[in-house]
Design brief:
Order of helices and strands of chain B: HHHHHHHHHHHHH
Strand content of chain B: under 5%
CATH topology of the largest domain in chain B: MetI-like fold
Order of helices and strands of chain A: EEEHEEEHHHHEHEHEEH
CATH superfamily of the largest domain in chain B: MetI-like
Low-confidence stretches of chain B: 7-22
Shape of chain A: globular
Strand order of the largest sheet of chain A: 6-7-8-3-9-10
Largest sheet of chain B: none
Structural class of chain B: mainly alpha
Helix content of chain A: 25-40%
Oligomer: heterodimer
Number of helices of chain A: 8
Bound molecules: adenosine-5'-triphosphate, magnesium ion
CATH architecture of the domain at 1-81 and 199-262 in chain A: 3-Layer(aba) Sandwich
Strand content of chain A: 15-25%
CATH class of the largest domain in chain B: Mainly Alpha
Distance between the termini of chain B: 20 Å
Radius of gyration of chain B: 26 Å
Distance between the termini of chain A: 40 Å
Number of strands of chain B: 0
Chain lengths: ~260, ~280
């Protein structure tokens, strides 16, 4: 791939957290990753390995202590509207309707009202919530809430979408359905997506590349290319190739976990 | 997704039904809690007390200089309404009250938001707030009359001071306890500090703001009545105090009843405002 199509580049990134006792803990160490434009990349790894930390740094929520992060060739220095973030849960504004939540980013950006409304309706349609625009979050199911969350991030037409375990709180069935939906939306919007998950099957199903991280301090252990054809029906999860990918990644993580215990 | 949800809804009653109908059969025996008596027990008690009161009054056990009766209250209240005395005093009181409380609400919310949002400011004024909240603000009345006299301004000021501190305190707590997830969302979408303040802090603190208003309105009402009793030439508090001084016990009771009803109406209107401001909470 040529250089111009690189969306995100992480070079020797270190991230530390300050500790109460004055010291600090290294959460992420020497993290190198390249995400190409239009790719769907998932990050998996043992719990506490620094997945959210990496995503938060890309989102600009916290500083990195060494190395550099580039988005579209420009160094990331803080949060911004060129990245759309979908949080795990409880991040919708409870006092705004579904539509009101979706257009939040546009409102803050000063987009005129009529345009906001139009864009909001389009997005409700895209995420399959046409008739739920005036519902408040507590009137929506968990899956619907996450659709609103995705739509809110898409509304600002970000250059890169960041999702941190967006389906973690959903039941297994809804979760699978949302994966299917996310792939549909991804295809329709041609977004680049960086997605964090615990769920190996979810990662394999969604990704072009699965990034496996080591236990803390998190490093990139392996970037696994997923060579499964698209579009991917849910049945593909029962295919031999799929389960082989799953097992391969599972073994990587288990070996990592054991290393940590010893 | 919609399909999934509606399917769930269709299945749910069918699943629950057998159990629900079983429960109904078991509980069919009419208990005390299903009777007419229980459902209206509040009203029945109220009427019983009124009747007892009337009987005691009529029996002559209590000197009528000290006690009025329900029938007397209605009678005298009716006359006073016709003559316009009640309405005039009530309007006088409401004017003081509404002016003072609106000022307290607006400035209280504003100050509370600032104190909650900018922690150093909140901390700086905290001792002042604590002192004021622990004191019945009516003790300031002599000072107020010294400064601004006994006119309109003095009552407005008392109402204002009585109401503002609980509003400040509750608003401040509401802002301090904002969900950090939501402020992070604002940050992620590139909201400026002012935008975050307006789109997250204000609506996020709204439940607390409303409960502050509820406490504040009660205290303001106490403030206006007390001020009128001590320093005034009009108002419902003045009317009660005046009637008491003249040993007109019926008028005293009428005044008290009017104050009670006003208080109840105000509380009710706060509930309406509350359900309007917090409409997302009602499912
Ligand atoms: N604010 C913080 N202060 C101090 N240490 C932190 C903080 N946030 C995270 N950490 C530490 O950094 C490491 C990485 O955390 P992170 O949340 O990125 O892990 P994760 O891979 O997302 O975990 P999970 O899979 O459980 O969500 C953890 O060991 C955690 O204890
Ligand atoms: Mg995490």
């Amino acid at each position: 791939m040529n250089k111009t199509s690189t969306k995100l580049q992480s070079e020797n990134v270190y991230i530390t957290y300050p500790l109460k006792n004055g010291g600090e803990v290294t959460a992420v160490e020497d993290f190198n990753l390249t995400v190409e434009e239009g790719e769907f990349v998932c990050i998996v790894g043992p719990s506490g390995c620094g997945k959210s930390t990496v995503l938060g740094a890309v989102a600009g929520f916290h500083d990195i202590s060494y190395g550099s992060l580039y988005l579209d060739g420009k160094e990331i220095t803080g949060a911004g509207r060129d990245r759309g973030v979908v949080f795990q849960d409880a991040s919708l504004f409870p006092w705004r309707t579904a539509l009101g939540n979706i257009i939040y980013g546009l409102e803050v950006a000063g987009v005129p009202k009529s345009e906001r409304q139009k864009k909001g309706d389009e997005l409700l349609e895209l995420v399959g919530l046409n008739s739920f625009g005036s519902h408040y979050p507590n009137q929506l199911s968990g899956g619907m809430q996450q659709r609103v969350n995705v739509a809110r991030a898409l509304a600002i037409e970000p250059s890169l979408m960041l999702l941190d375990e967006p389906f973690g709180a959903l039941d297994a069935q809804t979760r699978e359905f949302m994966q299917l939906e996310l792939l549909r939306i991804w295809k329709a919007t041609k977004q680049t997506i960086l997605f964090v998950t615990h769920d190996i099957a979810e990662a394999v199903y969604l990704s072009d590349h699965v990034v496996v991280m080591t236990a803390r301090p998190g490093k990139l252990l392996e970037k696994v290319k997923i060579d499964l054809p698209r579009p991917r029906p849910l049945e593909i999860k029962r295919s031999k190739e799929f389960t082989e990918y799953e097992k391969y990644i599972w073994d990587l993580i288990v070996t990592e976990k054991q290393k940590n215990v010893v | 997704m919609e399909n999934l949800k509606s399917a769930e809804q269709k299945i749910a009653p069918a699943l629950n039904n057998p159990i629900a109908s079983l429960n109904l059969k078991k509980k069919k025996k009419t208990s005390f809690y299903d009777t007419f008596l229980f459902r209206h027990i509040g009203l029945i008690t109220f009427i019983t007390v009124l009747i007892l009161w009337e009987l005691i009054y009529r029996s002559g056990i209590v000197n009528p200089v000290f006690l009025s009766s329900p029938v007397q209250i209605v009678k005298v209240g009716y006359q006073l309404t016709l003559s316009g005395v009640l309405v005039e005093n009530l309007l006088f009181t409401l004017r003081n009250f509404i002016t003072g409380f609106l000022l307290a609400a607006v400035s209280g919310v504003f100050i509370g938001l600032i104190m909650g949002w900018y922690k150093p400011i909140g901390k700086a004024f905290d001792p002042f707030l604590t002192a004021m909240l622990g004191t019945p603000r009516i003790v300031l009345l002599p000072l107020i009359t010294l400064w601004v006299g006994v006119g309109f301004a003095s009552k407005v000021l008392v109402v204002f001071l009585a109401g503002i501190f609980p509003i400040i305190l509750n608003t401040m707590i509401g802002v301090k306890n904002l969900d950090p997830n939501l402020t992070r969302v604002a940050k992620a979408f590139g909201a400026s500090p002012i935008q975050t303040f307006i789109t997250v802090a204000l609506p996020g603190a709204m439940p607390q703001i409303v409960s502050g208003l509820r406490v504040g309105i009660g205290q303001s009402l106490v403030g206006v009545i007390a001020a009128e009793m001590f320093v005034s030439t009009g108002g419902i508090g003045y009317f009660v105090a005046q009637s008491s001084a003249n040993f007109n016990v019926d008028r005293v009771f009428v005044g008290i009843v009017v104050i009670i009803i006003t208080g109840m109406l105000i509380t009710q209107s706060v509930k309406w405002i509350e359900s309007y401001l917090l409409k997302h909470r009602i499912d």
